[in-house]
Design a protein that fits this description.
three-stranded antiparallel sheet, 20% strand
Length: 421
């Protein structure tokens, strides 16, 4: 193993794994904290997918440290802590506490933090996070039901989460290239900075940042920073030139879409799928709580659909609708009820013969993967930036696209199937 990665949610792990595959690294994603280093698959990079983005900080830290121990024991020469390109967190964490803990474990005096992902309209300029041309605090992401992001100043946000000194490597330095960025890291260290937010508005910036980080024992950020990492290992003679996707094959069978995200991007995707005539069933936590709807009812409906075309079951709705449900049931109870139901539906669909699944939403994807008891995913072809097809290990093999709520073009649910071999 060359690179060991810890991701704070499932779709983020898949996003990172895709980036590394595109760089020529044989990459496998494992689900949950590895119990033993000996159980890790043979690969250039291993990405551990946790569900730690919104758990209590102490739980996120414990799982991240346990994952780090397994990855280090497996031979990882560098660790990467991956979080969302919208820096999803609260003032208590979990980005700051996990970064702090990993730095302490590695005796790492300095690291970087860069969530930028221009391919999905996420950019960092002068330390501020933008969604397209809009500050994060003015975007729909400010109303995320679990991690509302209303401060776009990442230096400020991260400073509230950690005791480490947070600074900035600004655009002017990043624009000058990898050597200038490395020198910027040194200047930041000299000024006592321990975690540097790094500006980036283009893929070329991310590649340069990755190259400048070759000597760091820990890197933190969105998946975009990983663009430059494979070449670092190649330059050291540790990575060959084989195509990591040469043996990927998707199982044949019926297809389904399960969507629990309420992001604006997923709302568009659901609407376009319905307009295209995909059979769809909308469910919400209130109907589940009252018994009006159940997993059994959803599966009965699914079993009566034409198996030659995809079907869709979704809880996606506008933020104000979600807030109304949360006000009546409680935020955590409402979310858990939907996630548990969609996980049960996923199990039932597989029992019915479904072998191809798109799952939208990080929390939903985690619930479905856990519900299906999946342990490892092989990374396949890219559908849209940050979202590949994957193939599960074990029986029966499944093709899964695990999509972050904010990712994907409006026609994602329609075009994804055409990319399966």
């Amino acid at each position: 193993m060359l690179l060991g990665c810890i991701a704070d949610d499932l779709t983020g792990a898949t996003d990172l794994a895709l980036m590394l595959v595109r760089g020529g690294m044989r990459t496998v994603q494992v689900v949950g904290v590895p119990q033993r280093a000996a159980d890790l698959p043979a690969a250039d990079a291993v990405v551990v997918a946790l569900k730690s983005r919104t758990t209590p900080p102490e739980e996120a830290v414990a799982e991240s440290l346990a994952s780090a121990e397994a990855l280090l024991a497996g031979g990882a020469k560098q660790l990467f802590f991956k979080y969302c390109s919208t820096f999803d967190s609260t003032d208590k964490g979990n980005i700051g506490p996990v970064t702090e803990a990993l730095m302490a474990r590695l005796d790492c005096p300095f690291t970087l933090a860069c969530p930028a992902f221009p391919g999905n309209q996420r950019a960092v300029f002068q330390g501020h996070l933008f969604v397209g041309t809009t500050l994060l605090s003015d975007s729909p992401l400010k109303d995320h039901p679990l991690t509302p992001m209303r401060d776009p100043n990442l230096v400020s946000v991260l400073s509230r989460q950690t005791h480490r000194k947070v600074g900035l490597v600004p655009f002017e330095t990043v624009e000058a290239g990898a050597e200038a960025i490395a020198a910027g890291f040194e200047r930041a260290r000299d000024e006592g900075v321990e975690i540097a937010i790094v500006d980036a508005i283009s893929d070329s910036h991310l590649v340069a940042i990755g190259r400048a980080a070759a000597g760091l024992s820990l890197i933190t950020g969105g998946s975009g920073v990983a663009m430059g990492l494979p070449q670092n290992f190649r330059d050291r003679g540790l990575l060959g030139g084989e195509d990591p996707l040469r043996n990927f094959a998707a199982p044949a069978g019926p297809a389904a879409i399960l969507s629990g995200s309420c992001s604006a991007a997923t709302q568009e995707q659901v609407a376009m799928a319905e307009e295209a005539g995909i059979p769809a069933y909308r469910v919400d936590a209130l109907s589940l709580s009252s018994g009006e709807t159940s997993a059994a009812a959803l599966l009965d409906w699914a079993g009566r659909q034409d198996s030659s075309r995809p079907l869709m079951i979704y809880s996606t709705a506008a933020p104000e609708t979600i807030r109304g449900v949360q006000d009546r049931l409680g935020r955590d109870q409402a979310g858990a009820l939907v996630e548990e139901t969609l996980a049960e539906v996923a199990r039932g669909l597989v029992d019915q013969g479904v072998r191809r699944l798109i799952v939208a939403g990080g929390e939903t994807s985690g619930a479905v993967v856990n519900g299906l008891s999946l342990q490892a995913l092989e990374i396949g072809p890219e559908i849209d930036p940050g979202v590949p097809w994957t193939r599960s290990a074990g029986e029966p093999p499944l093709a899964l696209a695990l999509k972050s709520g904010n990712f994907g073009a409006p026609d994602f649910f329609l075009k994804a199937w055409d990319l399966l071999p």
